[in-house]
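hey team, just a heads up i'm posting the complex here instead of the shared drive bc the drive is being weird again. everything in one block, sequence lines first with there labels, then the predicted structure for the whole assembly after. its two chains so it's a bit long, scroll down
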Amino acid sequence: NAGVTQTPKFQVLKTGQSMTLQCAQDMNHNSMYWYRQDPGMGLRLIYYSASEGTTDKGEVPNGYNVSRLNKREFSLRLESAAPSQTSVYFCASSEWGPGAANTGELFFGEGSRLTVL
Amino acid sequence: RKEVEQDPGPFNVPEGATVAFNCTYSNSASQSFFWYRQDCRKEPKLLMSVYSSGNEDGRFTAQLNRASQYISLLIRDSKLSDSATYLCVVNMGSAGNTPLVFGKGTRLSVIA
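-- predicted structure starts here --
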């Protein structure tokens, strides 16, 4: 029962370096999401993909890019990392699209802890 | 007014106590509501949905008041294992495909 798998779980970067966070789900879900979680800020949506082939900006998209590679995989790229991007990143998936009234259960990965020095 | 607001706590309660959390939301067109639980350094997980008529799951009761735009979660007979952060989540639904909006969470510590 893998569910949502994120890699890497931990990463330390220097300012200006790039990296890609990988996410895969095995539940045949249509929608996938990337959130970041910071102390005192709660979960904030970075990007989401309502279905394969589509992506949309969330609340805090600046400094990030995403790719919905196929139905299973949704990656998040930091092109030039900044200390402000130090955070815990969560990938999630849901069966229904984000606008559907019955969308409620998001399945989260275990998180990726990123530190940018 | 922020979209989803919660008292951050922490709520420190003894075992066996009853504790209630409230959450307010700003968009009156919001369609569905949920409570998630997040343990320390873990991912959030769905605890329960919140239905218009109110709903119960064991020691947990969720209520929705659309007129006042708030949601509540009541935990009876608190256990040590209930210690976690509880996230209020609102699906804005008809507001243009807006995904779920998370509150910042209310931290609960149940003390022996």
